[in-house]
Automatic annotation (TrEMBL):
The keyword Transmembrane applies. This is Carbohydrate ABC transporter membrane protein 1 (CUT1 family). The chain crosses the membrane at residues 20-46, 81-102, 114-134, 166-191, 224-245, 272-294. The keyword Disulfide bond does not apply. Keywords: Cell membrane, Membrane, Transmembrane, Transmembrane helix, Transport. The lineage of its organism: Bacteria, Bacillati, Bacillota, Clostridia, Lachnospirales. PANTHER family: ABC TRANSPORTER PERMEASE PROTEIN, INNER MEMBRANE ABC TRANSPORTER PERMEASE PROTEIN YCJO. It comes from the Bacteria. Its main location: membrane. One of its GO terms (biological process) is transmembrane transport.
């Protein structure tokens, strides 16, 4: 009897341990490639002359004071806020409009299919392709300048990516164009999941299109919209490839963001301590947003 009970306990333990055995390789890989590098960067932020010097000096919070008082970092924060806020708002508006167009009953299935391919096209390109494409179009001799000069909107060609006044707006426009399909596809999926009974009931009550949109559509899409905004905030905050391959943070720091600032500190100036400090500050902001995102997901569940 005792042997049977002992065997039963072993079988139960084995079944309980089996999922963790399958997860172990992934957990080990994440620990090596994610946790350890993060801990190393956090440690570097409290030392001076790391990596280059074999005996780095512990300086505590001095690196944080230096970074937060660096004029270039303050410019990067200002540019990043403009880049992120404008991109998120534009993504939401454009994605919502296109999703509503694709969800309307006034278009046929073939027409919707064609529009879906066209609207989702920017999401299919990599950052390098997008950067090269837009650099060619925004070139002083590119197609954009040809169109606006042909329509007599301007007299001379404009250097969109080389002007301090226009460069940040141009890069933000590129990011908006490349990012709105994610919103469109997600919102469209949410719209198709809303029960038609709600709209039929609102029509019987005499609600117009505007009232239906704000009383039914938006509340039903609220969990999706919050998730999209939080994810997009983190992704846009960390956007690097697009900016680096179009302007490199220039001209004269006009498009310098936190991500390009960190890269320059580490791989141009070889100030790995300052780069680590900037990365930790960015990590803290993303972690706070991530906590809100997880809480929102749990409350939705």
């Amino acid at each position: 009897m005792n042997q049977t009970a002992g065997k039963g306990k072993k079988d139960i333990l084995k079944r309980q341990a089996t999922p963790y055995v399958y997860l172990l390789p992934t957990v080990v890989l994440m620990f090596i490639l994610l946790v350890i590098p993060i801990l190393m960067v956090i440690r570097y932020s409290f030392y001076d002359n790391v990596i280059i010097n074999k005996n780095p000096v512990f300086v505590g919070l001095q690196n944080y004071k230096a970074v937060l008082s660096d004029p270039n970092f303050l410019v990067a924060i200002r540019n990043t806020l403009f880049f992120v806020i404008v991109s998120i708002i534009a993504h939401l508006i454009i994605g919502m409009v296109f999703a509503l167009v694709l969800n309307t009953r006034y278009l046929g299935d073939k027409t919707k299919g064609i529009f879906r391919v066209i609207y989702a096209l920017p999401w299919m390109f990599t950052a390098s392709v997008i950067a090269i494409l837009w650099r060619m179009m925004l070139n002083p001799n590119g197609v954009i300048n040809y169109l606006i000069t042909s329509m007599n909107l301007v007299n001379d060609n404009i250097s969109f990516l080389a002007s301090r006044d226009i460069a940040l707006k141009a890069v933000t426009l590129i990011n908006i164009w490349s990012g709105y399909p994610f919103y469109m596809i997600s919102i469209l999926a949410g719209l198709q999941g809303i029960s038609t009974d709600l709209y039929e009931a609102s029509a019987l009550d005499g609600a117009n299109a505007v009232q239906t949109y704000f009383r039914i559509t938006v509340p039903q899409l609220k969990p999706i919209l919050i998730s999209l905004l939080m994810l997009d905030f983190v992704w846009t905050l960390q956007q690097f490839a697009l900016i680096w391959m179009t302007t490199g943070g220039g001209p004269v720091n006009a498009t310098e963001t936190i991500s390009t600032y960190i890269y320059k500190q580490g791989f141009t100036k070889y100030q790995y301590s300052m780069a680590s400090t900037g990365a930790v500050i960015l990590l803290i902001v993303c972690t706070i947003i991530g906590i809100f995102y997880v809480r929102q997901q749990r409350s939705g569940d």
